[in-house]
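are you around this afternoon, could really use another pair of eyes. what follows is a protein written twice so to speak, once as letters and once as structure tokens for the fold. i want to understand how the tokens follow from the sequence so walk me through it. anything you notice is useful, everything is just below.
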Amino acid sequence: MVVAINNPARPVESDLLHTEKILSDRKTFFLDLKQNSRGMVVKITEDVGGNRDTIMVPAEILGDFIAALSDIKLTADEHL
């Protein structure tokens, strides 16, 4: 399960533990590992010309998320 953007009506203090930045053509992706009172999450943000979209992936399902992306990459590689 992927959880959508934090509810702005309920701001949650968080600490940034690790960050990565990926550049691709006109897009920039930020991957931030954060920890707050509810646990750890990976915040994935896509920036395209100043417009940002964000999803939050709970750390406890990160293995499932990465496995799914690996399966998708294998399929994409077969079609290149």
Observations:
- The chain has one domain: 14-78.
